[in-house]
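Let us begin with a simple case.
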Amino acid sequence: MGSIEQTAEILLCLSPVEVANLKEGINFFRNKSTGQDYILYKSKTRLKACKNMCKHQGGLFIKDIEDLDGRSVRCTKHNWKLDVSTMKYTNPPGSFCQDELVVEMDEENGLLLLELNPPNPWDSEPRAPEHLAFGEVQVTYLTHACMDLKLGDKRMVFDPWLMGPAFARGWWLLHEPPSDWLERLCRADLIYISHMHSDHLSYPTLKKLAERRPDIPIYVGNTERPVFWNLNQSGVQLTNINVVPFGIWQQVDENLRFMILMDGIHPEMDTCIIVEYKGHKILNTVDCTRPNGGRLPENVALMMSDFAGGASGFPMTFSGGKFTEEWKAQFIKTERKKLLNYKARLVKKLQPRIYCPFAGYFVESHPSDKYIKETNIKNDPDELNNLIRKNSDVVTWTPRPGATLDLSRMLKDPTDSKGIIEPPEGTKIYKDSWDFGPYLEILNAAVGDAIFLHSSWIKEYFTWAGFKDYNLVVRMIETDEDFSPFPGGYDYLVDFLDLSFPKERPSREHAYEEIRSRVDVIRHVVKNGLLWDDLYIGFQTRLQRDPDIYHHLFWNHFQIKLPLTPPNWRSFLMHCG
C-alpha cells in the first residue's frame, strides 16, 4: 500500500482583530515565520483562500489594476490572471483552477488556513470501472442516514438509527423502518458510523444488534474525540470496533474497498466515506459541512448527502432581543434556501450519475416539543431534487423506507422501471406513533438521584467539565416541560472567568447567557457526563443572551471537549455522606 494517512497542516493563523479588519474582496497575507504568501477573498457569504503562487510557474500574484470588481489578481511573471472569487484562471481562460485551502474559524473568531495532504487521496491506486451485473450492487434505504448496501457478496450498512430517540428525547424517526431491519443489520459484513451524534451512533439500535452479534465489525474514522468515547458507559457490548486512519483505502475483498475522510469544518468529530466496488464509487458525505475541505471525487456513480437543515437549537430555542417569532421564521426560511442552493451547486459541480438526499428524516414528535415541530421547518427532498435536475443531467432519488436502487440498471438506463424497486403497495412510510415511555423513564430516573440532594454537585460538575478563564456568566435554571422553573429545582450562576458560583451577577463588564433546561435531561446529562448536544441540538433548552453573540469557545467545549470519563459521583457522595 503506497498510501499515507491524510493530515491537516496549519499554514497561517489570523488573530480576531485581523479577521475583523478583513476587507470585502481581496486580502494579501504573509506568514512571517515561513515566508509563504496567501490570498484571502471575502464576500458577504464566505471566505475563500489559496496560496499566493501562480500554477503556471510559481509567480507571485499582485492586485490587478484593470479589475474593477476587486475579484482578480495578476501574476508578476507572465500576467496570468486569477479570479479569486471562483478560483479559476481567467487569463489564459479555461486553463487551471487554483487549489483552495480550508478556512476555519477558531474559538475566539480568529482564523486558520489549513491544507489537507494528500488533497485527493482516493486517486492513489485508481481502478477503472468494470462491468456490473444487474443486482450486483443494490442500495436499500432503511431510515434517516441508514443505508443497506449489497456489494457483490458483501453487505455494508451506514449509520444505523432504527429505534428510540436521538439527542435525549428531541428527535424521533420520521420514517417507519422496514420490518426486517434487525435481520438486515445482523447479516451485514461491516457497519460504518460517521460520527458520535446519536442520530448516527444510536446506542438503543446497537444494543439490540449487540444482543445478536456483538462481534459485528464496525468502522469509524480516527477523529480527535473518539466516536465511541461513551461505549463503556452505554453498557452496549460491542467487541469489534475498528478505528481507521483518514484518506487510506481499506480493502474488504478484491472488489470492495472504502476510505474515510475528515470534515474541514469539524475535523474533531465529523467524517464521510467513499465506498468503491469494481471501480464504481459511492460517495456519502453524511453531515459534513465541508467534507474533505471541499475537495471531493467527481463523476461518482452515486452520491448521498444531508439536505434538510434544522439540526440545531438555533434559532428556535432562543428568545429576547431580535429573536421574535417573525425574525426566527424569516431566518429559517433564508437559511434553508441557502442550504438547498449550496447542495444543488455541489451536486452540479461534482456531477455524480445519481444523487440521493438523506440523513434529514427526523421529527420532533414528542408532544411537549410541538412548538419546535411546527416552526423548525426542514427542506423538502423533492424540492432539492427538482432544483438539481433543472440545472444538470444528474438522476435523483428520493428514498422511501425499504426502497432498493439497483446501481447497474440505473447506470445503464435511468428510465429502467426495475432500476428502483419501491416498497410494496400499502407499506407504511411515515411513523405515526413512537414508544416514548421507556426512553423518558431512563431520563426521569436521573431527577431523583442522590447526587442532587447536595447543592455542592454544581461545583463538582463544572470543575470536572474544566472550562474557565472566559468572561462569561451563565445562569442555569432547571425547568418543567414548559420551561417554567421546576419546583424545588436548582437556579444558579456560574462565572466562567474564575469558575465561581456567585449569588448575583458580578459588577464587572461580562457576557451573560441564561439557559433553561428540562430537569430530566439536564440531570441525566450531568449524572452521566454526556455532551450538551442532547440539550442544545435536542431542543431541551431555552436560551437568552446579552450581548447577542455566539460563545463558540463555551459551546464547543460543552458539545465536544468534555472529559472522556464521567464525573466520579461515587466518591462525591462518600464525601457528602
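The second case is a distinct protein. As before, the sequence precedes its C-alpha cells.
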Amino acid sequence: MAASGFQHKYKTQPVSGKTDTKERGALRGFKSEDQESQTPSKRILDGMQSCEISSDSTDDPLSSGLRTHRQPRIVVIGAGLAGLAATKILLKNGFTDVTVLEASDHIGGRVQSVQLGKATLELGATWIHGANGNPVYHLAEDNGLLEHTTDGERSEGRISLYTKNGVAHYQTNAGRRIPKDLVEEFSDLYNEVYELTQEFFQNGKPVCAESQNSVGVFTRDVVRKKIMLDPDDPECTKKLKLSMLQQYLKVESCESSSPSMDEVSLSEFGEWTEIPGAHYVIPEGFTKVVELLAQDIPSRTLSLSKPVRCIHWNYSAKHQQAIAQSSHTHQGNNHNEYYHGCQPREDPLIFGHPIYVECQDEEWIPADHVIVTSSLGVLKQNHEAIVAIEKLGISTTDKIFLEYEEPFWSPECNSIQFVWEDEAQLEQLVYPEELWYKKICSFDVLYPPERYGYMLSGWICGQEALQMERCDDETPWRVLRSSWGSNPFIRGSYSFTRVGSSGEDCERLAMPLPYANSTKAPPLQVLFAGEATHRKYYSTTHGALLSGQREATRLIEMYQELHRTETTKPNNVN
C-alpha cells in the first residue's frame, strides 16, 4: 500500500538523481576495518562493514572466476518479494550457486496470509495496486489467482477498501452519524487540496516556508482556512468539518505508513506513481504470489531462521584466523563445503570471494555478491549514520481484525470512519498510552460476507500501533492483529519520503558497493533491493518485486559483458 487513497491519480515522473562522489561517500560511511585496527569491530545485525582489499591481490576475482569457469557465489539476504524475484531471475539465467538467507521461519517478508475459519486474512500486503504493466498483477492474472475476485473487490477509489460497493459511515465520538451530503462536501474540499499537494513535485512548484515542507502542515492550514472562510456554514458544521480533517489525515498516515502526515515531505509527495487500473484483492491470499515466485527455487537454496549479523565486504586476509577457527567450530551447521577447507594462511581473494556473510549462528558464508533486501526499518535499526537510511522514513501501519457472530452495521455500510469532535482544533495528535485506540482511523467491512463472515478490519499507525501490539486481546468474539513494528526482522510496514528526504535518497540507497569509480575492488559486491529502493513505487509489492529483478539484472548484465570481453580478447603470441 502506498500514498493516498481518495480517488487520486499520479503522473509518472522521469527517474533522475545523479550523485557525486562526495555524496555517495557520505551515504556509505562504513569505515575500513584496517582503519579501525585499534578498536574492536562493531557487529550489527544485517550490518555491512567495508574491509580494505588485500594489497597483494591485483586481479579482479570476478574475471579470474570467469576464466576458471567458476560459478559466481551469490547470497540473497531476505526471502520477501524482492529476494525471491532476484533469486528466480538469477537461477533462470544460469546462476547455480545462489543461497537465500531468511531470518524468519517462513518466506514472504511483509506478505502474511492467515486462515481464520474459512476466511483468508492479510496481516501484510493486501491489494495489487493497478494492473497495466504491474508485474504482480500479471503474475496473479496469468495463474488464475483473480478468477474469484468479485467486481466489488476491483476498487478504483480508495485503495484500502475491500469493496467499492456501499457507503462509508462517519461516526462521531458523540454517537451520531455525519450526514452523507456533508461527508461528500468535505471530501470534495479535501481532494481539491490534496491535488495541490501533488503540484509541488509534478510542476516544480516552490514550497512556502509556512508549510515547513510538510504535507500535514500544508493540508491542515489550507483546508482550515477554506472551512473558516465559508460564509454558508454555521459554527457547528465548521467544527465538524475540522474534526473530519483530522480523521482524513489519520487515514492518509496509515496509507503512507507515516506516524503523522506532518512528517511526509510536501516537495516530494507527488513523485510516488500509481499504476493505472483497479486495486485487486486475491481471495486465496497474497501468499499465493509468494508461492509462485518460490516454486522454481530449489529448497536447498533457501535457509530459513538464518539471521545475518554482518556483511564483511572487500574482505582482507587479516581475518582468516577468525574465519578458520569459526569453520572448525561450526562445521556441523555450515552448508558451504569449500569454507570448511579454508586454512588460516589462505586468502579468500585467491579463490575469488571478496565477501563473507557472518550469520548469527556464527557461520561465515563466502560470496562474490550479496543482494540485501532487508527492510528500511532493519537498516535504520543498525545504520543510523548512513545519510539515505537516516533521511527516508518508515513507520508501522497495523491491522486489527474483529469477527462478530452478527453484524451491528447496516448492509450498505462498507466502512466505519471514526471522527473525534474534541480533536477539531488540535495541531498535532498525540495520545497518552492508554488512549492509543483514538489513533484508529477506521474499520473496513470485509466483503463478501459469504467468504469472510462478519468481519471488520481496523487501521492504526505510528507509535499508537506499537502500543496496540503490546496490548492483551480483548475479544468481541475473535480478534487478530498484525505486529510489524515489533517484529525484529521487519521493524515497520513500508517506507515514505520524510521531510528532508527525496527520491534521490531512494536511488542512493539502491547504489551497489563499491561505487563505480573504485578501480581496484571487485565490482557489485553488495547490492540493495526492497520497496524502499524504488523511487517511483516505494511502499508497494510491485516496487519490491521490480527492485529484486533490477539487482539480479545488474549482475547478469555485468557477467554478460565480462564474457564478451573475455571471448573477444586476442590470443597472446610469444
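The domain at 150-281+397-483 is CATH 3.90.660 (Polyamine Oxidase; Chain A, domain 2). Residues 436 and 467 are 7 Å apart (CA to CA).
Keep these points in mind for the review questions at the end of the chapter.
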